[in-house]
Every structure is written in C-alpha cells, then in structure tokens.
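Exercise 7.
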Amino acid sequence: MRHPLSLVPAEACDKRKKRSLVMHCMHGSIYAGRVELTQLRTFATVARTGSISRAAAELGYSQSALSRQLQALEADLGVPLLERVARGIRLTRHGEALLPHAREVVRSVAQARVDVAEAAEAEVRLRLGSVPSATASLVVPALAVLERTRPRLAVALRQGSASGLIGALAAGELDAAVVLAGPDDRPRPGMVAEPVLTDELRLLAPADHPAAAAGVPVALAELADQTWVEAVGDQGLLRRVAADAGLRPGRVRRAPDHAARVAYVSSGLGLALVPGLLAADLPTGLAAVPLRNAPTRDLVLVRPERAEQPAALAAVREALTGS
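Solution. The predicted structure, written as tokens, is:
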C-alpha cells in the first residue's frame, strides 16, 4: 500500500542542495520517484498557460499524449496536481508545492546544457615559462605543434631565469616551466621535474678560427688559454664545465645576453660555450663546433605535483619531447 505523500520545499530535505531534483520527504527518508524531465516540463508549461490545449500546442504534443504525461506524473507522486475548472486548469495544493521545484529543474537542466556546450568550446589556458636558451629552438616550435594538434589550448609564454621561473611556479604565477636541471635550481617541495631534452654544448667560434677550420670535434683542453665570453643567465656554466674537465679558463668576458655573446664572438673578442639548441641559427662567419666528450645540459619540465590541468600539461610535454 502506498503511503500518502507530503510535498515540502527541497530545502527541508537538504538545505545544501537547493537545486536538487524533486524529492519527497516520506517518513523521515528521501524517496526519489520515477519523475522524468519531460513530465516536469509539461507540468510547468500547463501551469503557466492554464490550458492543456495551449500547452500541447506549445510543446508540440497531442493533447492525449500530454494528458498521459500528467497522469503518469500524478501516479508517480501519488497526489493530484491539477483540477479542471470552468476556465481551464487549476493547480491543487500539491501542484502549487511542486511548481517551483519543477521550474527550477527545467531551468537548471537548460542551463546545464548551455554550460556544457560552452565548456566544450572554451579555450584551456596554460601559463608556461622557459629559460632563454630553450625558447626559440624548443618551446616555440612545440607551441606551433600544439596550435595544430590542440587548437583550444592557449599557452601564454614567459621567459626568465631558471630560479625566477621556479619562484613564479611556486607563487602560482605559472603552470609549468622549461628549465635547466642544475644544482642551484632544483624543483621545490611539491614540484616534479620531467625530462624533456639532453642538450650537448658546442664551441662558438669565428669560422676562420683554427678550432672551427679543422672540421673535427675539438677538446676543451686545447682551448684552455683562450679568452672566453659568458652570457648573463649562463653564469657559472663555463666554470662548471672547465672544472669537470680539470681546466682553468683564461680571461672571461661578461656579455649581457646571448645576442651580445654572439656579437662578441663574431667580433673576435673570444670563444663561447653555447647550448646546441642555440647553435642552429647563427650569423654568417660563425661556427658551432662539436666538442670531444661534449658536456651536456638536461632540460626538464617542472610542474606542481598536483597539476590543475594534467591533460594540458601532458600535451605540452608531448609537443616538447616529440613523443
């Protein structure tokens, strides 16, 4: 035997779910019936128009089909919702209790469809940092790949030093950063570093320099007494490489950036160690000479351990590594 139902506002069932589907509080428990969205939409339309015939015309149903929906809704709820009067249809007290919930369900479902459609079309935005030596030859080509393969992924690029980018990542200003895996710029707690590329260093020299003219890999030991040019941002690289090789470099000039370093070398003011990534596009008159037992630098993608957009970051890493 079916118990009589008392329809009450949804807040009485659960104040935290104001937009929940229609529920009934019956004997202290929640009873969810077989109420369908089409039935609620039909009921709300009949209540608004005050007429079965006008509601049927508006919804595109026959009057008999619309009446069957209303009857099924009343049968499921166990109470009469409508009554006929001289001028059409009037809501019963049960219908009056149901109406605001029916309207809210119909409105919420319509808004949900809009929100889902907008989400499907919306861009995913990612903030990516890069050290200068990786930007032009690695990161920008990867962004070009993403433009073709992930057109809704919009990447905002920021360039800086490894320590500065890791700091920005820690502050929530970046979603990930391509940096050098160096002893002084380790990821902080809560971050992970994923391998991207192992880059061989090259000797940057004038094309007519003996080291370049030989056409074979050169040993750093043969160049220890040369004048060297080191760019700000790569400070310490020459010293570390020389120390690993057991060498002490001669005179060292400081250039403000990579472009100035190239200009120094082009003008005959010294030699330089440069990442292989930066050796691909050099002015005429310069050569990127392979080194014997070439030192390497590891580039990594640093990101939060719990990334907010793991799928987007996976796409970026795939574009960077080519796999």
